[in-house]
């Protein structure tokens, strides 16, 4: 299973995560305590190997801005956490990851509506559109035969990621808050998270 470390804001942490085995690095362009500038994200991405996914996180951004930031920075995917409609996603010229907040069974119906490369399932809880460090009821997605590539996010930590993945069966897990200490990325937690996912232990 692949691992995405999200909310990276400096080269050193990005390099550390990749050496520890991360497959994808996320950059938050939306309003957030983890927000990064276009120029900083570009600087970091220029140091990353080609095979690593470089994912930009946005909330209700315009098509024009999404596409120009994608090109300018060198992203591989646009991760959308706002109220972007299926038809809006379809107009975008680049690979899309649509985040869907899973609160009830009804939310699962939305997955089929989005013609995206990946669907990211996230928690509905918390004040922001993502990055809240809160989980959701993973059992809502158990045995649903969802024929889409799922990315599991929302409050993942070394203590819950294996159980959550066993239930949801994602192709990738995505973590931000769970690898931070006092609001900053923590290398020990990043390493432990990746080791837990890839090797089943710290
Ligand atoms: O990280 C943020 O601040 C953020 C802001 C706005 C939208 C999405 C954001 N992050 C994404 O949220 C999920 C869950 O993160 P967490 O592990 O619960 O902190 C993840 O996909 C982040 O990429």
UniProtKB/TrEMBL annotation:
- EC number(s) reported in the record: 5.3.1.24
| SUPFAM superfamilies reported for this sequence | Ribulose-phoshate binding barrel
**The organism sits in which domain of life?**
Bacteria
**EC supergroup of this enzyme:** isomerase
One molecular function GO term is: phosphoribosylanthranilate isomerase activity
What does the UniProt keyword field contain? Answer: Amino-acid biosynthesis, Aromatic amino acid biosynthesis, Isomerase, Tryptophan biosynthesis
CDD domains of this UniProt entry? Answer: PRAI (cd00405)
Associated pathway:
Amino-acid biosynthesis; L-tryptophan biosynthesis; L-tryptophan from chorismate: step 3/5
InterPro entries, per database record = Aldolase_TIM (IPR013785), PRAI_dom (IPR001240), RibuloseP-bd_barrel (IPR011060), TrpF_fam (IPR044643)
- Establish whether keyword Isomerase is in the entry: yes
Known catalytic reactions:
N-(5-phospho-beta-D-ribosyl)anthranilate = 1-(2-carboxyphenylamino)-1-deoxy-D-ribulose 5-phosphate
- N-(5'phosphoribosyl) anthranilate isomerase (PRAI) domain boundaries: 3-195
**Which residues does UniProt assign to the signal peptide?**
none
The UniProt entry, under PANTHER family, shows: N-(5'-PHOSPHORIBOSYL)ANTHRANILATE ISOMERASE
Q: Which family does it belong to?
A: Belongs to the TrpF family.
* Annotated NCBIfam families: PRK01222.1-4, PRK01222.1-7
The name this protein goes by in its record: N-(5'-phosphoribosyl)anthranilate isomerase
